[in-house]
């Protein structure tokens, strides 16, 4: 059980995490979804005491992480698989975790086998590991203490399709045995296939949370037109709360007929009009992602403009 | 954009929390053991530790080969071995702290032991242990060199190093290692801390010397400011009360105060 309560973290004028609250329940996989830079990693770092919150806080199994007497035995953490001493062998990294937690020496070999690292690979220095091997080693470090909570930041990064499947099965089994899993990802599909509950974060705020079924079933209407901004404006005037998604889509909580009539009255031709059918989550997520991408494109435009002027 | 917030119905959650006892707290002895292991189990750490033995051996051989027969004394061997020690030991101390940040292994270290003060204390204990043990090893190699050297040269073996002399040399090396440890804590970056060590152990003493030559007023102040100068007394037998006072004051300025400030920041800083 993980509880995040009104957590805020600011860096000067920038608010990385803005008053977020959610819980991750035992027996369930909670997916923490958001584009890069949305505040996922900051939230997870605060959760395990590596970053101090500006306001609010978080507890794991009812206690602050720093108050856990032997955290590795209760909470398995993998924040960044590459954050390891490059000159240490995989086995030694696992031995350090095993010794710190006070586990029998035999647990190291058992865990290496569980994450499919061969003795030869385990004897190599981490400098020579692929990202996928580092993720496996990181998972081994998280699991070696037989914890009841797992906190994983982008664990599927660098894994091949078989590895992703393996990770998914492992997390499913862990949750089915009563464990709590919180994992983050910036890929909607990845979260969709594994999570029971989903928390979506964008620009430091939670924009949606609920069970996967609820979020995917979230109704409403999707309308596409060549003038999405105009369409959204018409809807806003009509007292609706539209969201402009990617690819000229506008999402709104309203009947199909209402949206059709509004567009007709405003003289905006629609190219598509249908029930959102779970497209809500995807469109919302694309919209979140598009915001950061637009910044990127603007930046490129500026560079091009400058070069043009110089020539 | 609009915010969609849906709350999870609590009825759907399977609450089957595993019945488990809260584990016992991690004993400090275990953390010290782990930190000692971490000093040896990286490639750089291993060779740094090995270089202590290698340097002691090379220095002993060099003394055997190059020193004139009447200078084959225990003190000559100790001095020869002491020089590389004084460089290597602080590096060991620096890396034990700074690599957690430079190599980012701190992410794991401080999630396994979230009370950072406990980790730093364990590192400090491990550092002092390494300093004392390597000085004992170096002393033994030197003593062996002294016996071999004098028997090859056919002169009497001279034991001119008292227990007190040796203890003072060990103390000097522990202080040097603590200076490295302090830099690791304050800078939390391996390259910066290593450069920093050579600045305070090499560059600053030279500057102080130049300054005291040029400025009369500084000459009296010098021993109260220069940590290296104050440590010099430890290599020359029994320090006087004034020399101990110099050591205390400079140690406060260069070791205790920066370490305290560095620790304050280290305990509260964000680990990325």
Can you describe this structure?
The complex is a heterodimer of chains A (311) and B (272). Chain A is 41% helix and 25% strand. With 311 residues, chain A is an alpha/beta fold. Chain A has 2 domains: 2-215, 3-Layer(aba) Sandwich (Rossmann fold), CATH 3.40.50.300; 218-310, Alpha-Beta Plaits (2-Layer Sandwich). In chain A, the strands form 3 sheets. Chain A has a 6-stranded mixed beta sheet, with helices on both faces. In chain A, strands 11-12-10-13 form a 4-stranded antiparallel beta sheet, with helices on both faces. Chain A has a 3-stranded antiparallel beta sheet with strand order 2-1-4, covered by helices on one side. In chain A, helix 6 (161-176) links the parallel strand 6 and strand 7. In chain B, 74% of the residues lie in helices and 0% in strands. In chain B, helix 2 packs parallel to helix 5, helix 3 runs antiparallel to helix 5 (116-153) and helix 3 (74-102) packs parallel to helix 6. The longest helix of chain B has 38 residues, at 116-153. The two termini of chain B are 31 Å apart. Residues 1-16 of chain B have low confidence and may be disordered. The chains are: A alpha/beta (311), B mainly alpha (272).
Q: Count the E strands of chain B.
A: 0
Order of helices and strands of chain A: EEEHEEHHHHEHEHEEHEHEEHEH
Shape of chain B: globular
- Based on Cα principal axes, name the global outline of chain A: elongated
Distance between the termini of chain A: 60 Å
Seen as an oligomer or otherwise, the chain set is heterodimer
CATH superfamily of the largest domain in chain A: P-loop containing nucleotide triphosphate hydrolases
CATH class of the largest domain in chain A: Alpha Beta
* Beta-strand content of chain B: under 5%
How many helices of chain A? The count is 11
Question: Unreliable stretches of chain A, pLDDT < 50, 5 or more residues?
Answer: 296-311
Spatial strand arrangement across the major sheet of chain A: 5-6-7-3-8-9
Give the biggest sheet of chain A: 6 strands, mixed
Structural class by SSE content of chain B:
mainly alpha
Number of domains of chain B: 1
